[in-house]
## 1
Amino acid sequence: MCQCVHVRASRLVSLLLLLQAKGRMTAQSLADELEVSVRTIYRDVDSLHAAGVPLYGDAGPSGGYQLLDGYRTRLTGLTEQEAESLFLAGLPGPAADLGLGDAVSAAQLKLMAALPSPMRDRASRMATRFHLDAPAWYYDPERSPLLGLVADAVWRERLLEVSYRRWRSPEDVTRVLRPLGLVLKAGRWYLVAQGSTRISTYRVSQIQAATVLDKSFARPEGFDLAAHWTESLEDFQARQYTGSAVIRLSERGWESFASNVLPVVAKAAQESVVDEDGSFRVTIPIESVDHATGMLLRLGGEVEVLEPVELREQVTAAVRRLASIYLG
């Protein structure tokens, strides 16, 4: 079959799913979503009409195309790869944390029932061959007993009053927040919320008490949770790593460096200089002399601190203390 036929069939399914998900849409908005011309949308709508799809359109500024109320298309437009990927989309642990474990299982069962037999076999194999484990190594997932309540406020766009324990003084504070979204990072849940002046991040496990208020709020126009999270991480790292150090790594130290430091440090180390003796001279960002000392001691004799002097002296003092303990 011609490739163009496959493309058009996929586009028709996408058009149906868009109308099913968003309701009324203009020809121009459909064309923008599907990256085709408005004339192509008119032809596709005529094809769907001819196929018996209950689709109608209204003229005028507030018009557009819409499916007949109650019409739902079946998932026959899924490709094999799309069906397989759906079995990786829902992490069972986090879904259960949010009270959605049963819903995810039910949705997967319904999907399996709707798929043709060959595609069903391929999709089921995905779950038996890949498992996504969200928590980081050496850390147990945090208990967040108020997560379900916080998620409810996020979903229903309700103001949330929280008692929050933070790291600096005063430790216990009370805030009324506009909860914008939840993020799971390395087994820990974080609430992104707008306070009285700005959007901040709150660790859900540090929320001591919470009350969902019977008052809704308007989300900031154009707010993108994923983009905000990426930007806030970059800003946090920029504020955290305010200093730098120059170190020399042996070949073995270079090979193991990335597994012993945070990604932001490992990334900076990619810009290295190879000396005549085969060692690697690297400039890395550091949070503080104390923090860098602990980080570099993990590499033992495979690293030498060149700059700053304060860091070199502190590492030297730590090595001497260790030698006095083990050598007597």
## 2
Amino acid sequence: MKRRNFIRSGALAIAGFTILPRHILGGTNFVAPSDQINLGIIGCGAQGRWTLAPEFARRANLIAASDCESRQLNAMQAIVEKETEKAKGQAYKGFKLYADYHELLNRSDIDGVIIATPDHWHAVQTIEACRAGKDVYVEKPMSHSIEEGRAMADAVAKYNRVLQVGNMQRSWRNFRHACELVRNGYIGEIKEVKVSIGPPPVKYDLPAQPVPKTLNWDMWIGPAPMNVYNEELAPPMERNTFPNWRNYREYGGGMICDWGAHMFDIAQWALGMDDSGPIEFTPPEEGELRPLSMRYANGTIMTHEPFRKADGNAVRFIGSDGVIDISRSFLDTIPAKLQDEVIGDDKIKLYKSDDHYNDFLTAMKTRKQPLSTVEIGHRTASLCHIVNLCYEFDRKLVWNPEKEEFFFDDEANKRRGNPIREPYSLKV
């Protein structure tokens, strides 16, 4: 696999999300219980502005934002004011902006935060938010290393917070249906799972460019290793695109983490492995066509390979009695009738959510666990991180999911974490 060429020539697929109009819920003057929750958003880049802020502004009180790029911060204000006015039928001018997210966390009137920063910021900001008494909605992949994920889970437990990971495919009917079909044996014993996503990340090697005057580059880097600025990491707003920091090891996890956090997540859910993961990871051998493979303790094999090249990111479940292919654009089954199978109440029924954002808000109010918990997010992200290490080391890795350590492999165990630049830390 030519990873560098694959990354630089590939395109990042973007899928929309459909919400239930407010007039269906109870008219334009309807005020849902979740609207009484006050939220702040940290990170005003493409995902924050285009997806998360509009969705939460329609469902709760989004009252503040923070970003280290002033133009993005100002653009976020315009979006939130517009969406809030549309949702509530009145002008909204109370939105506050902060260049430093710590000022946002210090506000006592904010109940929860949405973390939409690059991957390398997720752990530090989540831990600090929990310490400040805020619940957290954090974008996927939840962490940037195995060590970070465990620290995030420890913080949620210590401070008794609610955390929802942005693995929103779990709130989509077709993904849930596919997983329930697998769990209930509709395609028999699962022999193999194929996951089609893009490649792992590469080491950051881009040339230096002048830092925009509107960007605090030191704050953007935060706990990650300091490097020169290049607009591929933080593109100007005029490019109107998702940034490519995700393709570089120091700041993201490549498509293995970016899309694996979705597709490996669905595989884990269907296999009943939300509290575990594969125990062996084997890379492709030079000159062979076979993919990277993973083996669970029960013998199930999962591979990373483009099994439907024209269809992009997807998961295939191969059973003794049938096959299920699932993605954001299709649900194909053999036998075909399984697509419309009605799964009775006497069968295994998975957590049902039709709205990932409301599920988080409901959990905030009830203090019950949401659909995609910190432990689930940690296990999914850990799987992605180990796949990346397996590609990087180009050798077999043996993993103990219970102890969260590699067997007899000091090099791999040291890489369970990343260096954290001072003054930041993972201290819970």
## 3
Amino acid sequence: MNPYQKKRRWKFFLLIFAILIGIASVFYTDSFVKKMEREESDQFHLWVKIQERAMFLYDNDDYRTVVETVRKNTKTPVIMTDSAGIITSFNGLDSTKTNYPISDAKLTYDSLYFVRQLRQMKAQHPPDEMNIFGRKFKAYYRDSFILTQLRYFPYIQMGVIFLFLLTAYAAFSSARRDEQDHVWVGLAKETAHQLGTPISSLMAWTELMKSKFDAEDDPLIAEMENDIKRLEIITDRFSKIGSKPILEDHTVYIVISDFIRYFKVRTSDKVKFSITGDEQVRAMLNVPLFDWVIENLLKNAANAIENEGSISVNIIENLAKEQVFIDVSDTGKGIPRSKFDAVFQPGYTTRKRGWGLGLSLTKRIVENYHSGEIFVKESELGKGTTFRIILKSSLRYEPTTA
């Protein structure tokens, strides 16, 4: 199992664990809320019974204190109406408002407030019928403020925890990524420095061979020089990691065809290469880095072809958006649709000896250094894959006027 798959598995387990914690919290709070609902319902029914018997109980001094205690201690908002639906009394609502137009500087007459409260109560719970001195009344109630808060508490709690985890994850990921980038930049620059000496020696040895054996036109020496130049380009790539590359205006077709000419000589004869499309389109490129992109795509395509096959590069210009499309297609084994995004992750590889860094570096070079895009355009198992690179064209077109 590669590191990317391990990381995905751990993320999945942590996500499941967080979901289970959230579900447990919701269920526990829900049971607590239901318990409070029953208590408030019992309290409301007790209040109704006290109201029905209030006049009789008031006559008894022993029960008068009980009646007042029950009336004052109820936390449940209650409204009582007569048979015509007119509000006759209320309890547990805003104490600064009144339902009756009386001259009291401490109270504000607001009948609409009580109408809205009554509407909410009717929507939440059925009323209790009351009979006081032969007159019919109805008592309504709604959930207390504390109970309403408890209903939403687990969701608010989960939201806060999620935001905290998201912030912590982003902070740690950023710190870890910066640390990894620092290590990779240092390693790359040290590698470039170490490669400098043997490359210089190889250049000197080839010059000595040409002069000693009179091999100026020897094709083998020429290929050796091409490889040495390739090593120089690779060294230059590593030395530039961590610094902003310089982009220059180049013809895309020429840059890619030059690299294919070098690459296909060092690949199996069973793999056929072709390049088609617009030969004039131009884009801002850093050639050593962009060659790295093409190299990684061609290597992956060649590795995906088990026996005979072909690799084609098609260059298309989108005039409307002033973009350049570069499609690299192969007739290899293909990629499952579920892995279209995963192939660009560091550590993802299908080869036993692969590092899984090629396409990750390719994506970074295209997106971070060339302000472009790269993605799997299409793929079918057993038939092949097409990667698409999108770059900004350096050519500008002015609309023609009649």
